[in-house]
Amino acid sequence: MTFDIDMIRKVYERYPERIAAAREAVGKPLTLSEKILYAHLWDGAANQAYDRGASYVDFAPDRVAMQDATAQMALLQFMQAGKDKVAVPSTAHADHLIQARIGADKDLQDGINKNNEVFNFLSSVCNKYGIGFWKPGAGIIHQVVLENYAFPGGMMIGTDSHTVNAGGLGMVAIGVGGADAVDVMAGMPWELKFPKLIGVKLTGRLNGWTAPKDVILKVAGILTVKGGTGAIVEYFGDGAESLSATGKGTICNMGAEIGATTSTFGYDDSMRRYLAATGRQDVVDAADAVAEHLTGDAEVYANPEQYFDQVIEINLDELTPHLNGPFTPDLATPVAEMKEKAAANDWPTDIEWALIGSCTNSSYEDLTRAASIVADAVEKGIAPKAILGINPGSEQVRYTAERDGLIDTFNKLEGTRIFTNACGPCIGQWAREGAEKQEKNSIVHSFNRNFAKRADGNPNTHAFVTSPEMVAAIAISGKLDFNPVTDTLTNANGEEVKLAEPTGHELPSDGFAVEDNGYQAPAADGSGIEVVVSPDSQRLQLLSPFAPWDGANIEGAKLLIKAFGKCTTDHISMAGPWLRYRGHLDNISNNCLIGAVNAYTKETNAVTNQLDGSVDEVPNVARAYKAAGIPSIVVGDHNYGEGSSREHAAMEPRHLGVRAVIVKSFARIHETNLKKQGMLGLTFDNEADYDLIQVDDTFNFTDLVDFAPGKQLTLEVVHADGSTDTIKLNHTYNAQQIEWFKAGSALNLIKTQNA
Ligand code: MIC
Ligand code: SF4
Description:
Helices cover 31% and strands 17% of the residues. By secondary structure, it is of the alpha/beta class. Helix 1 runs parallel beside helix 11 and helix 7 packs parallel to helix 9 (245-253). Iron/sulfur cluster binds at residues 96, 140-141, 160, 162, 358-359, 423, 426-427, 447-448.
């Protein structure tokens, strides 16, 4: 059965007319990204061309997906929007809260016991408002979406930055904060700045040890963590067609790591095969009727330089396996160069743990290719040096892998642990033994992010991102710098042997199977369902609206923290143990900016309280200013808020009295989240002004009363000795977004509009 097939058919029915209108408006051949965007305009058929990277445009996404760690806040907000039911098909997925420790059987039950209150809340809110709920153990949101909901040419948003994974099936799928999801679920338009377009032409074919993951590891090395900001990355060329749909998903998934708005591929046979194998021949039939519209125009792909803002070409014949890391996903090293680079940088090369999984690489094909390495090692009598941990992407993948003997193969390797179908170590849900000792060590994984402390909470764990095949090979060799192409391993008989190249199956030859996929359909009429949140719950807290702007210039503000260097959403609102407070704004605010590095001392979670000169934890100092009625500001570096879509990173400072975040540049989702929550997200006009900010400065906005689109704001910085600097700040607020600021938040505005 295909979910929401009528909606999908309707989208395809309107495609020909919408594309014809877009062609006329744009006046030249169209990329796939433009086709999907123009086919989803809120106002219907296009009557004008939009400026890439400049125009704000209202869209009408086809569906919404949320995961448990962000859904709580999204749904707490939706409950305030005054609606009976969601306006578009929506789902929530319980995948982030289950800790990996012993193995799936035990861990899943523990996870359910520990998070019962939250799962019950999600289950009842979903039931009430018409939202499909995927229960704990059903799988990781993006794998479940790819298997069940994604469709070529569709547009969706999701409260998770890796929503972009659905580009593997030719969607424009975009990660957003919960407040954006609320707009769409409440039946309102969703606004996005019309993206720029980056074309990536893939030629040749993957071979040997190279995997789809290496395409994106390479692209990340080229574009860096901010090179994709504000852009859709569109892949094309015969190399693109040679990749499986789940391989395409891997590539799109990690587009989040270069800051791309999303990534996508044109509709092709790999997508037909995947849709059919996952029981959706009806989608194939419907898509085939409009197939020409579900890929870029031939002229575009023949002369990409004329149609994309930037073009990159990668020859898959020549691409080699990569390892990206540590601490950032864009530090790309070809496997063949790792020996030299690890030695030069003093990266530990002994590996104790190697992890396969996460939404990026947990497909059936991924498991078969990793299993082929394991089977080869077992057959050749090579004992593994590290522990292999595996989180299958979904119950359907796990069940099929078990039926087909893959799980048995993995278990033949001593020590292997099969964890729950969930995020697990990827988001710090990992009870790694000994992590608290904070020893310097390295791990490899097939995930997408490797920021400090992310997997096991240890700041000295050097995590490297690579393909599942390479993770398996490194687990066996126990060495970060093992190169399976050239290096040998000693087997039980003392012989020097080489690992065979990976082989795999794109799709299960006997089809997918599953007994209980973990889906809970919502009630047809939810009006009688009551959602209860206990007032003394430590995990959930009903929201009270943020205060509207009082119409005056913000004056006398103090500096909460000047963050130095990388400040991702993991630094602003850490995950791992803190995930338990994702539904309780006041409790989770106790992690506000505790990972950010204080620019003056290079310490974390220690800032000066200007009221009494004491040094205290960031949340405490923020609470002290708030209690004294003193506004505060946060200052940051480049790409501030990189990483997650979690709006907690905006709501926490807002809750603690921070009024403005002033940085050199923002990551897209975080900037929007700040705007939605009624904050000022501003950038230095002159980046060097970052250096002017002193720890004991006082800040006065002198022309906030004239806040207007396209007009700079002025900040007077008063130093402790009485001298002042006046600096200019840029912003990207449009008229509507300024209304959010004035109302105190976008949600406050929705409420007045619905009242
Ligand atoms: C992540 O990978 O960082 C997460 C956890 O999936 C986040 C969402 C969250 O913080 O809940 C994301 O990528 O958006
Ligand atoms: Fe889950 Fe990790 Fe994917 Fe985020 S990146 S959705 S934590 S598996």
